[in-house]
Design brief:
alpha+beta; Butyryl-Coa Dehydrogenase, subunit A, domain 1; Butyryl-CoA Dehydrogenase, subunit A, domain 2; Butyryl-CoA Dehydrogenase, subunit A, domain 3; four-stranded mixed sheet; four-stranded antiparallel sheet; globular
């Protein structure tokens, strides 16, 4: 049984100045008038804005300077993410590479892999995607069947990945493949660093309900990679992938995807005096404050070198439930014409269509609750 720990962490000195820096960058560079792009903004791509953040030292903040990083604290990085998400800034292009790809390479990769890819990620110029889910191995990730076989002095990859966010703009994928013949479940899996311009790779779009292209399916047909494409140790892919998922589940994006709608609701409540809107805004504010304290506690423990995987999983589950409920409750309790151009109506309509996916990405609610139950010794 694991111990469940949530304890407060103080923000570092200079937090106010850092927030001001981020807000000034957003004000100067995010001028897109399409308010719908502010919803779920960590999946909205703007390569130019990613490069601006890279030049400002706001990507790769905690990484060693030798790889283009800035050796700042995890809590300083948390402040930057909070400000970007709260404002609805378009950070999708570099998000996965900053959150997962580079940290994985810094932990498990070779020196050659780090030198080749990490500085470009820190500059906001190299993007990554995650090769985990498959058509028959979504929530049950241990059912991965895509294969990697030794072939001479390299590897031969075959199979398919699906729901691959941003594969169409990414330069590299960290992919999980079954590398041992006859292996089952979480044994015999390995991770590979895959340049997506490698021959034999086909990327096809999956268009979502709002007509947007975030997801893709990626096909591998006799894709040849050199031996040095292996990330970490052969057969250790499951442990590496689950460590990667802890990074995916622990950030403020797990409760802030709908926060721009809360901001618009507060504006509406102030201008209209609608008692229902005022009460709902208060409910959202109190819940967001609690989730922020929990999320910040996870970030603080990670900054201390701990691995709060259980707490990160709980925060993701609670955060997804919160951000998923926001547009539904706004629609139910506030009188709106969803076809109008009113900002509150536009964001509500957008998030009503997007929010069903929030409890799927990064692990379904059922999978997460199973992890929590095991961690607490309940199963």
């Amino acid at each position: 049984m694991q111990t469940f720990t949530i304890k407060p962490f103080e923000m570092p000195s200079g937090a106010g100045a850092l927030r001001t820096q981020v807000r000034d960058i957003i004000s100067a560079h995010v001028t897109d008038g399409d308010i719908a792009r502010r919803a779920n903004c960590w999946q909205v791509n703007d390569p130019e804005f990613s490069r601006v953040l890279g030049k400002a030292g706001l990507i790769g903040m905690t990484w060693p300077k030798a790889y283009g990083g800035h050796e700042r604290s995890a809590l300083e990085r948390y402040i930057v993410l909070e400000e970007l998400l709260a404002a609805g800034a378009p950070v999708g292009a570099h998000w996965i590479a900053d959150r997962q790809t580079a940290p994985l390479l810094l932990r498990y990769g070779t020196e050659e892999q780090r030198q080749r890819w990490v500085p470009g990620i820190a500059a906001g110029e190299v993007y990554g995607c995650i090769g985990l889910s498959e058509p028959n191995a979504g929530s049950d990730l241990a059912s991965v069947r895509a294969s990697a076989r030794l072939d001479g002095d390299g590897w031969l990859l075959n199979g398919q990945k699906i729901w691959t966010t941003n594969a169409h703009i990414a330069h590299i994928m960290i992919g999980l493949f079954r590398s041992e013949d006859g292996s089952e479940r979480n044994a015999g899996l390995s991770q590979f660093l895959i340049p997506l311009d490698t021959p034999g790779i086909t990327i096809r779009p999956i268009i979502n309900l709002t007509g947007e292209h975030d997801f893709n399916e990626v096909f591998f047909e006799d894709v040849r990679l050199p031996a040095e494409a292996l990330v970490g140790v052969a057969g250790n892919g499951w442990a590496q992938a689950t460590a990667e998922l802890s990074l995916e589940r622990s950030g403020p994006e797990r409760y802030l995807s709908s926060m721009v709608l809360v901001t618009e609701l507060v504006r509406h409540a102030c201008s209209s005096g609608d008692p229902a809107a005022i009460a709902l805004a208060g409910k959202f504010a109190s819940e967001a404050w609690t989730l922020r304290q929990m999320s910040l506690a996870v970030a603080g423990r990670m900054a201390m070198g701990e691995d709060p995987a259980l707490e990160a999983t709980i925060v993701k589950d609670l955060g997804n439930s919160f951000e998923q409920a926001i547009p539904t409750l706004v629609q139910q309790l506030v009188e709106l014409d969803l076809s109008s151009g009113d900002p509150l109506a536009v964001l509500t309509a957008q998030l009503l269509q997007l929010s069903p996916s929030f409890s799927l990405r990064g692990g379904t609610r059922e999978i997460l609750r199973g992890i929590v139950a095991r961690g607490l010794g309940l199963r």
